[in-house]
Amino acid sequence: MHSVRIALYPGSFDPPTHGHLSIIQRGLKIFDGLTVAVLKNPAKDAVFSVEERVDLLRGALRSDQRVQVKTFSGLLVKFAQEEGVNTILRGLRAVSDFEYEFQMANMNRKLDNGIETLFMMTGEDYFYISSRFVRDVARLGGDVAGLVPPNVLEALRRKFGPPQGAQK
Ligand code: PNS
Question: For domain 6-159, which architecture applies?
Fold first, then answer.
């Protein structure tokens, strides 16, 4: 009998990008379902509140029944334990991500060796996209169309106005 396999896909998602959505879509080819776990962090330069990020993710995912969006605070492995999930899914963009991800995966394994971290390579179209650059570019009047889903683009334009030099 096939048991239902769920993975936890954690992150800050400030804001969600096409890079995140690509990992979610591809993760769903391996897992029956995903729980997207949004960290409730009090980051000083945050653009969106945690509630806004959850709404943006849900909007971008168009209520795909296989994906749940939840928030967590504290240790990720504790949240995974509470959820009864033993796999953490992370995207890897470039070599520069590797060291941080390697440390995090090993720290999480040290905290609970029953939890595995699985990495997926970000699609080649998205390897340069990061939430931080999207935030900075949008804040500085640059155009991030094509880097984020339409509902996130709208939300960024509501916060920062249309990109400078744009037609509308
Ligand atoms: O999108 P991000 O900012 O790269 O995601 C980082 C995240 C949320 C996965 C990471 O910061 C995290 O798991 N934070 C929770 C605290 C924790 O468990 N720390 C120990 C692991 S090093």
Answer: 3-Layer(aba) Sandwich (3.40)
